[in-house]
Structures are given as C-alpha cells and as structure tokens.
Specification:
- The complex is a heterodimer.
- By secondary structure, chain A is mainly alpha-helical.
- Chain A folds into two domains: 59 residues; 241 residues, MetI-like (MetI-like fold).
- Helix content of chain A is 74%, strand content 1%.
- Chain A is built from 15 helices and two strands.
- Chain A has a two-stranded antiparallel ribbon with strand order 1-2.
- In chain A, helix 5 crosses helix 6 and helix 12 packs antiparallel against helix 15.
- The longest helix of chain A is centred in the N-terminal third of the chain and has 51 residues.
- Chain B is α+β, with helices and mostly antiparallel strands.
- Among the domains of chain B are: 107 residues; 252 residues, MetI-like fold, CATH 1.10.3720.
- In chain B, strands 6, 7, 8, 9, 10 and 11 form a six-stranded antiparallel beta sheet that branches. Chain B has a five-stranded antiparallel beta sheet with strand order 4-3-2-1-5, with no helix packed on it.
- In chain B, helix 1 packs across helix 14.
- Chain B is globular.
- The two termini of chain B are 59 Å apart.
- Classes of the chains: A mainly alpha, B alpha+beta.
- At the A-B interface, helix 1, helix 3, helix 4, helix 5 and helix 6 of A face helix 1, helix 6, helix 7, helix 8 and helix 9 of B.
- Chain B: It holds the Pfam family BPD_transp_1.
- Chain B: GO terms for molecular function: phosphate transmembrane transporter activity.
- Chain B: Its main location: membrane.
Chain lengths: 407, 518
C-alpha cells in the first residue's frame, strides 16, 4: 500500500510539471506568433516615421509635397507628379502621391460598381429563390472563383480582354445596355407561359436555363451593335468618345481594371452576403410570406433590412480586397501615373507602384520610405475596413440570436 | 410599360422584375467563370496540338507556308485579314505574316511540308530538299526524311547522355573549384574534362539539312540545332494525339527556352512546389500553436477577442504589404545581419541579404498564418466541451487532454487550414516579386551538393512566369499559347487544392455533426 503512494506523488508532480511547462511553451509560442503577425504594422510605422520627423530635425518630405499640386522647375502650372526616380540634381525627383492614391480608389470604385450588383443579385437569388439542389452545387463553384489567382485574371484582362474590347467597344456597350431589359423580358415572357410549360422552367433553376437566353442576347447585341454605333456614335464609338467627349481611350484603362477586379472581388462579396442573407432566421421570412408577401417583397422588406449589416460588411471586405489587389492592376492598367478621373485612361495604383519600384529603391532612401508609406496606407485602410466589417458582423450575429433564429 | 408582374389572374405569385435581374446576375457570373475557364482550357491545351500547315498562294503568285492563327476584320471595315505563323525568323526577321483574305488565291495542305523545332531561331517551315551527312551519301526525298528521323533519335539520346555526364562529372568539379578547395590537379582534370565535352559536342555536329521555304529560298540547317521534325499534314489523328501528349509532357518536364517564350515550365513547377512545401512546413506548426493558445489556453476575455479579430483581419491585408514586410525585415534586416556575421568573406555580393527561397517561404508563411489559425480555431471550437471535461474528469492533465483528445479530433481542421494556406500561397505572385522570385534561375534550389537544399537561392514560379512572359518577353503574340498553358496549369493546381480542402471540411463537418448529436 505504501509503495504506490510513494510513486504516485512523484509521477503526479512530474505530470503536473510537464503540463505547466507545455502550457508555458504554448503561451509563449502563441503570443510570439501573434506578435510576429502584428509586427507588420509596427515595422511599417517605424520605417515611415523618419520621413516626417527625424531626431536631427527637419523632415525629408512634407505632407504638402505628397498630396498637393506642386510647382516644379520646368513645368508651368502646379501639378501632381509621381516621378520618384528622376535624377537628384536636375530636375529632381517628384513625389506627388495623389495620382496613385486617387486612381487606386477610382479603380476600386469601378470594380465595386461591377461587383456589388452582380454579387448582391446572385446572393439574393441563391439565398431565396434557387432550388436547394442547384444551390448545393453553384455556391461552392462561385466560391471557388475566389481562389482564381490574380495573375491569371490579370493576364486574361490585360492581354485578351483589353485588345478585344478595344476592337469591340460598341458591341460591349450594346451588350451591357441589352442585358437588363433582356432579362426583364425573359421574366415577362415566363409569366405569360402556360402553367404546364412553366413547370419545366422553374424560377429555382433560372440560373441555368437563362444561359441560352443570354446567348441569344449576345447574338442580338452582335447584330444590333453596328446599327447602334451608326445611329448614336457616328459609326465608331471610340472616335466619338474622342471627338465629342474629349476622352482618350487607352488600350489598358481603369475600366478594364475595374472589370477584372470586379470579377475577382465578386465571389468574396457574394459568399459573405449570401451567408448573411441565408442566416436570417427562417421564421421571419415564413411570417412575411404567410401574410401574403411575394418572395421578392419578403427579401426587400424583411430579410434585407435584417441582414443589411452583414451585406454592408461584405461590401466593405470587397472594397478592402479591391484596393490592395496588385497583380490585376499591374497587368491590366498600363501603369501610367496620371492625375485624371477618366475611366478610359491608364492608371498606376499604390500596390503596383510598390511591386515595380521597391526592388530598385535603395533601402533607407526617401523613395524607399515613400513606398513603405504607400504600404502603410494600404495596410491601415484594409485593416480598418475589415475591423469595421467584423464589428458589424458580430453585432449582426447577436441580433439574429435575439430574433430567436439559428446561432 | 404595363405592370405585368402584378397579381393578374394568370400570375398567381409574380415576383417582380428584380427577381429576374437577380437570377440573371447568377447566370452572368456562371457564364463569365465558364468563359474564362473554357478560354484557358481550349487555348492552353490547343497549344500542344500539331496543327496543319497551310500553303497559301496569293494572287500575285507569291507563296507562304504557315499555321493560321486568327482572322480579323480590316480596320477600314472592308474585308478581313488572316494572321499566319510562318516561322523562319532568320530569313524574314519575323515569324508572322498578315494576309488579306481577298488576296488569297488558293490554300492547300501538301503532305511534304516540314516543321522543324530548333534550339535557336524558333520554328522553321519548309520543304525538305536533301540530307547531307558528314560521311556518306547525300539523300533526297523520302529517304532524306527517314534518315533525318533516325539521326534525331540518336541525337536526342546523345544529348541526354551528355547532360547526365556533365551534371555528374563536370559540375561537381566546377563547384569545388569555385569554392576554392581544389588544387592544381583538379584544374588540370577540369581542362581535360572540358576538352572531352568539346569533343563529344563536335561529334554531334556535322550533319546538314538543305531545305527550301515556300517561296523557294534555300537554307542550310545544321542538324545538331534541330530538336524535332514533324510533317503535321501527313499525320493522322492518332499520330497527332501522340504528338499532343508528347508536347504536353515536354511542357511539364523541360526548361524554358528563348527568353521564356518557348519550351517548358519544369523549373517553375519545381520552384512553386518547393516554395509551397517549405512554407507549409513553417506555417502549420506555428499556426496550430497560435490557434491552440487562443482557443484552449488563453483567458477568454476582451483582449483575446480583440486579438482574434485582429488575426482574422490580417487575412484581408493585401499580399503586397506582406511582401514589403518580407523585404524590409527578412531580406534587408535579418538577411543583411546574417551576411555580416557569417558570410562576410563574400560581401558585397549578398548571400542571404537578397531575395531567396527561405525569405519567400517565410513571407508566404506569414501571409497564410491567419488562414491556418482561423481554420484550426474553427475546428477546435467545434469539438464539444464535454470531450474536454470528460478527459479532465478521468484525471488527464491539460497537456494530455490536448494531445490525446483535442488535437487528434482537430486534425482534419488543421489539414483544411494547411491546404487552404497552400492554395492561397500557390496563387500569390505580388509578394514574391519583392522577396526572391527570378525570371530565370540558373540553379534549382535542390541539387546533389551539400546541404542539398539551398534556401538562399532564387527560384522560378508559375505565376511569375505568366507575368514575365506576358510583360517582359519580346514577342507576346508568340508567347501567348505558352502563357495560356501555364495559366491553365496554375489554375488546375489551385482548384485541385481547394477541392481537397472543401472535401476535407465536409468530411469534418459530417463527423462532428454526428458527434454532437450523440
């Protein structure tokens, strides 16, 4: 009896000690890893600070140089210029970051213009209308789109889509104008179909049987485009843009970037918005429909207001992705640092500038630190936007719980 | 516009116009995705198909031979023009020919047209006139063709043997000399070996081909330069399928040629896979450690919640920012310090102070750390608390509970996280441009030289290969098929990885679904 009792405390203490050691190690390792990840922000701030404040006194650049139009020797009016690699003596590097930042935001805005309607429409349809079997296949497919590498999308946008659209500008415009009325027409015709036929084409499977209809719209646009161009744009949309609106159409431009980035961002917005919409407690939707609302009315009046924070956070996360996307912009934008607002001009984004210029910039120099400032801006923007989105989503989850639905 | 969607007798429950726009946006997204994948698949796979060579006779009597690439309307809107890929860069200075369709008299596909793939100058298209070996009789016609085929077979074997010999005998000696540990005897040995190399190379040269282009110019082509010779017009479908398979295999197994616009992508595949492997070795243990800390050890208070949100948000930080961090901290900071301490004798040429495999893997590991942490935490959170309580109640310590009960149950979640991380990392290019990807890496990071895995070396990458061939190559039009094939390969790899992750996650859910019910 006495022998085991002598061994047990020893083994017990050994186990306890091992346990405490392991806990300590896990704690240290966990905190270390998390600190390493969080170190990114600290590193960027530490490297950027000497730009504006140094112990020796005097800043390398002032905020005005970065963000306001400057008088440069050899140029008449004050302008924004990003020419950081001009030789130091004459005429000196130009560090106006406004063209980069503004065009980055513009490209992101264009991509949202394209992605948000597509993603929200798709989310609404698949959360409320789509048949369950189709949804089980389509949702993972659309989410897989998110994994398509930016370099592939950028390649297709820059080397396939851009030259094609340049030649078929009129057709592209016709197609965009034809799609919404064409879809409404499909709805109208469907409503007039005999009920027996309508059974074969249920709304739940519309995503699939609309495909041939869309092909027909494509063909129709192909046929209509020359007429339309002849009537409205004197035969050539591109020439018309140049003469009537004074817009120069660059081969690779903000619109192409917007389309490509919209395509890249759309799946992430879709996935989050769909989760938010389908997470709304079913009792709410059932109640509305029992009171006689159509499914669209249910969506618009009941489900969407309940899920709006989630949808908003989805859009914000999409915006964060669009602002920081590098390869697509690098390959589809022409990389010219211009200070314009025209969607048909090329652009150079903050991220693309970093990717191109940082390997050549001397460490510790002004140019290097400015590019790090660009990285800091991207980091701060995306981090803030994502945090906001996360806070909103936490609120939403709590609201659902209060509404008595699924956790 | 009549309000046809509102409750008429024929429409028991109209959904309104917006429902149709919503349905259309799903359709449009699916169509766009299908269009993109279809484009990549058709163009990428079509690259290896030995297409027929057309012999085009123009109205003015001129002839040209080449493969039709595309046909577009003329800029002034009258008529169309065709683009032919004619090869023969050294004769014409260009491998393309634009021909107005209206000027074409006839198009034929004569069986005797030959396409030669060469080491330099790209493709040659023409007729085989004669085979002039160094020794032996001059042959013409069909005999010349069969002599050429058999000679090409021998040449290929000789080339392979030479390459093996050089790798096994010559290269180790050169490296020893470079590192300065060899003596005079080794130098002599090297010279003898190099003389033998020259000798064996000379033995391969000597034979010549005489060819005629479609417009009648003569050309003498050293056979040693020729890699492959085909007569696509004389091949049946089966033979073409065989050639297609061999072409695809060469694409996967050979190195690039002609400034990345021709040849294969093997070093890029190797670099991508190695990078991702080193990265997952780094990211999985640390990610799991952080997740276990956050979920099992840390006090679940406000601070932990904040940290969790912060980690989650880091997944949304642009990848280029991680690249900047990698360049500033790993390459310039740690790498520069390492160089000053351990490799001072080779300075100023940097060893670790420049981009390389190690720094790129570390950067990607940092980039994918949030993915692994989030996925593992999700798995840990799914394990019912009574499993933990049961283990503790039976007298297990926390370490035993974690290692015997919790971690085994969370294994699928960790795997999912790792695969998602790998899938994300395989497609990232932007950060790599800052921390060590190379347009053309002369040395693969793995070889027979100690320590076998050279983490400081630069490497090639599939994604960067696409970017480089598309934007830094000379003739983009010529590189397009290759870029399509590379892009298809990259997309396939990533889709495969993602599908594996989805499958694993599904497996995990169904397993724990039954667990929490019982």
């Amino acid at each position: 009896m006495s022998q085991p009792s002598a061994v047990t405390p020893l083994r017990h203490r050994l186990r306890q000690g091992r346990d405490r050691l392991a806990t300590l190690l896990i704690t240290a390792g966990g905190i270390g890893v998390i600190a390493a990840v969080m170190a990114i922000g600290v590193f960027l701030v530490v490297e950027v600070v000497p730009l504006f404040w140094s112990a020796a006194g005097g800043a390398e650049v002032s905020l005005g140089v970065l963000w306001l139009p400057q008088e440069y020797p050899g140029l008449e009016a004050p302008v924004h210029r990003w020419q950081p690699t001009l030789p130091a003596s004459d005429p000196g590097p130009r560090f106006g970051m406004a063209p980069l930042a503004s065009r980055t935001l513009e490209a992101a805005a264009w991509s949202l213009v394209i992605a948000v309607p597509l993603a929200l429409g798709a989310a609404a349809h698949s959360a409320l209308f789509m048949s369950r079997r189709l949804r089980a296949h389509l949702k993972p497919t659309l989410e897989l789109m998110e994994a398509l590498p930016g370099v592939v999308i950028g390649f297709v946008a820059g080397l396939v889509l851009a030259p094609w659209l340049e030649r078929h500008l009129g057709f592209g415009l016709t197609l965009v104008m034809l799609l919404p009325p064409g879809l409404l027409l499909a709805g109208g015709l469907w409503g007039r179909l005999p009920a027996r036929l309508r059974q074969y084409l249920p709304l739940g499977w519309a995503a699939l049987w609309l495909l041939p209809w869309m092909g027909m719209l494509w063909a129709l646009a192909l046929w209509l485009a020359p007429w339309l161009e002849a009537w409205w744009f004197d035969g050539d949309l591109r020439a018309w843009l140049e003469t009537s609106l004074g817009l120069d159409y660059a081969n690779r431009n903000a619109l192409i970037v917007g389309m490509a980035m919209g395509f890249a961002v759309m799946p992430s917005i879709y996935a989050l918005a769909e989760d938010a919409l389908s997470g709304v407690p079913k009792s709410l939707a059932d109640g509305a429909q029992a009171l006689g609302a159509s499914r669209w009315q249910t969506l618009w009046r009941v489900v969407l207001p309940a899920a709006s924070p989630g949808v908003l956070s989805a859009v914000m996360i999409g915006a964060g992705r669009a602002v920081g996307e590098t390869m697509i912009v690098l390959m589809a934008s022409g990389n010219t640092a211009l200070m314009t607002a025209s969607p048909f001009d090329g652009l150079r984004s903050l991220a693309a500038s970093i990717a191109i210029e940082l390997p050549e910039a001397a460490p510790g120099g002004t140019h290097y630190r400015l590019l790090l400032l660009a990285a800091l801006l991207l980091f701060a923007f995306t981090f803030l936007v994502n945090t906001l989105a996360e806070v909103v989503r936490t609120r939403l989850r709590r609201r659902y719980r209060r509404l008595g639905g699924a956790p | 516009m009549s309000r046809w969607w509102q409750g008429r007798a024929r429409l028991p429950r109209g959904e309104g116009p917006w429902a149709w726009l919503a349905a259309g946006s799903v359709t449009l997204s699916v169509a766009l995705l299908a269009l993109l994948l279809g484009l990549l698949a058709i163009r990428g796979l079509g690259h290896f198909w030995p297409g027929d060579i057309a012999l085009v006779t123009l109205e003015d009597g001129r002839q040209l031979a080449g493969r039709e690439v595309k046909e577009v309307p003329l800029p002034d809107g009258e008529g169309r023009e065709r683009l032919y890929r004619t090869g023969n860069r050294e004769l014409d200075g260009d491998i393309w020919a634009w021909v107005p369709v209206a000027a074409i008299e006839t198009v034929s596909h004569p069986r005797e047209l030959v396409s030669l793939e060469r080491r330099h100058w790209g493709e040659l298209v023409g007729r085989l006139v004669a085979w002039v070996p160094e020794q032996g009789p001059r042959l013409e016609g069909e005999a010349a063709w069969s002599a050429l085929q058999s000679r090409l077979g021998t040449l290929e074997r000789q080339r392979e043997a030479l390459e093996r010999w050089r790798e096994q005998t010559l290269s180790p000696l050169v490296r020893r000399l470079e590192s300065g540990e060899a003596d005079a005897a080794a130098t002599d040995a090297l010279q003898a070996l190099q003389a033998r190399l020259r000798e064996r190379r000379a033995a391969m040269a000597g034979d010549r081909l005489i060819l005629a282009t479609a417009d009648g110019r003569r050309l003498v082509q050293p056979v040693e330069e020729v890699l492959r010779a085909t007569r696509p017009n004389a091949m049946g479908v089966l033979a073409k399928l065989g050639a297609w398979g061999r072409g695809a295999w060469r694409f996967l197994s050979e190195g690039p040629r002609a400034a990345n616009t021709a040849g294969g992508v093997w070093p890029a595949i190797f670099g991508t896979v190695l990078l991702v492997m080193v990265m997952s070795l780094l990211v999985t243990p640390f990610g799991v450690l952080a997740a276990v800390y956050l979920n099992e050890v840390a006090h679940q208070g406000r601070l932990t919640r904040l940290v969790r949100i912060g980690v989650r948000n880091l997944a949304g930080v642009p990848s280029i920012v991680y690249g900047v961090f990698g360049l500033g901290v790993f390459v310039y900071g740690i790498g520069g310090r390492l160089d000053a301490w351990f490799f001072a004798d080779t300075l100023p040429s940097p060893t670790f102070g420049t981009g390389g495999l190690l720094w790129a893997s570390l950067t990607l590991a940092l980039l994918t750390l949030p993915v692994v942490i989030v996925a593992t935490e999700e798995g840990l959170a799914r394990i019912p608390d009574r499993q933990r309580e049961g283990a503790l109640a039976l007298g297990a310590t926390r370490l035993e509970m974690l290692s015997r009960v919790v971690l085994p149950m969370a294994t699928p979640a960790m795997l999912t996280g790792m695969i998602l991380a790998v899938a994300r990392a395989a497609g990232e290019v932007a950060p790599l441009m800052l921390v060590g990807v190379a347009k053309l890496a002369p040395q693969v990071p793995v070889d027979g030289d100690f320590p076998f895995l050279h983490l400081e070396r630069k490497f090639m990458h599939l994604g960067y290969h696409i970017f480089d061939a598309a934007f830094h190559g000379g003739d983009v039009q010529a590189a397009m098929p290759l870029i399509y094939a590379t892009a298809l390969l990259l997309v396939l790899v990533i889709l495969l990885l993602n599908l594996t992750a989805i499958f694993l996650r599904h497996h995990l859910r169904s397993r724990h679904g039954t667990l929490s019910q019982c």
